[in-house]
Design brief:
The chain is of the alpha/beta class. The protein is about 30% helix and about 25% strand. The strands form five sheets. Strands 1, 2, 3, 4, 5, 6 and 19 form a seven-stranded mixed β-sheet that branches. Strands 8-15-9-10-11 form a five-stranded parallel β-sheet. A three-stranded antiparallel β-sheet has the order 12-13-14, with no helix packed on it.
């Protein structure tokens, strides 16, 4: 298949890309997914809020999705897309090993990566004791000692939400000193502690035979420590959007910075190019990402049907003429 002109090439094999490919393959489109094998949530042992899949490993979800796509004739191409060019009807994507794939339409579902603050010990706990999403890990953190790192404006929002799951919430970091009066009054009223000190390390118990030790707290620049069971961090989201920029997609400033402009179904300013998942919306959870892939696929198939119809009419007219 990959030696031919595909109907649709999906770049990104996460929930969004695979769901787009699934819908398109079921529509009998020639579709392939380029998958670099580095989903954003690969650090997490489970995902939540996905009806019928709650608590499932995100990697298991993707493995099941790949099998479903293949079951309808779609192809999974292992590799990293490094360049994209062309226009609607004739796009070419180049992989890091030199392979080149061509398609009539493109879906970019390369998502984003989390830019973590440079705190020793944080990366080792990421996806386990240190997490980002209250709706993904709030239930598992219920009634625990929760810390929220005051790193970005998202931190104050997280702290306010997490009080729903635990009465023991500490908002810690230099940015905690910058809270506006209204937010500070709300935190005080709800019993959220405010500690405007520099976090110098994320602390963990010694590693055991079954892997790294559990998160135990954070160390501060005054030499003290705060015992914690879970640390929430609002990392800076960075779009994996080199292909979109190379293709010339329009961008606009949004809540998390500059992000690609797309309509509700993921169509970008570049004819023939759609986005899905975190490539479209930075805050999309896994279930939202999967849904956006399905939504984009229905519009892409309709666009291809219209194109097929134009081609058929032109061919018939030429034959008659």
């Amino acid at each position: 298949m990959t030696d031919e002109l595909l109907d649709v090439l999906v770049v990104g094999g996460g929930a969004a890309g695979l769901n787009a490919a699934l819908v398109l393959a079921r529509a009998r489109r020639r579709v392939a997914v380029i998958d670099a094998g580095e989903p954003r949530n690969r650090f997490a042992p489970h995902m939540h809020g996905f009806l019928s899949r709650d608590g499932m490993s995100p990697l298991d979800l993707l493995e099941a999705g790949r099998a479903e796509v293949r079951g309808y004739g779609g192809e999974i191409v292992n590799g990293r897309a490094v360049s994209a060019a062309g226009e609607a009807g004739a796009f070419t994507v180049t992989l890091d090993d030199g392979r080149m794939l061509s398609s009539r339409r493109l879906v970019i579902a390369t998502g984003l990566r989390d830019d973590l603050p440079d705190v020793p010990g944080l990366a080792e706990q990421w996806g386990r004791g240190a997490v980002a999403c209250p709706y993904c890990d709030g239930w598992e953190s219920r009634d625990l000692r929760i810390g929220v790192l005051a790193f970005t404006p998202m931190g104050a929002h997280q702290a306010g939400l997490l009080r729903q799951w635990s009465s023991d919430v500490t908002f810690v970091g230099p940015a905690a000193a910058d809270l506006d009066a209204e937010t500070r009054a709300g935190f005080d009223a709800r019993g959220i502690r405010i500690v405007p000190a520099q976090v110098t390390a994320v602390l963990s118990a010694p590693a055991g035979a079954d892997g790294p030790g559990a998160l135990t707290g954070v160390a501060l620049d005054d030499g003290s420590t705060i015992p914690l069971d879970r640390l929430f961090v609002g990392p800076r989201p960075v779009a994996n959007d080199a292909l979109l920029r190379e293709l010339g997609a329009d961008y606009a400033e949004g809540p998390v910075g500059e992000w690609v402009v797309a309509d509700p179904f993921g169509a970008t300013s570049v004819p023939g190019v759609w986005v899905a998942g975190n490539s479209a919306v930075a805050h999309a959870l896994v279930v939202m990402a999967a849904a956006s892939g399905a939504a984009a696929a229905t519009q892409i198939n309709a666009d291809l049907v219209a194109d097929d119809t134009r081609r058929a009419v032109a061919a018939l007219t030429a034959a008659a003429g």
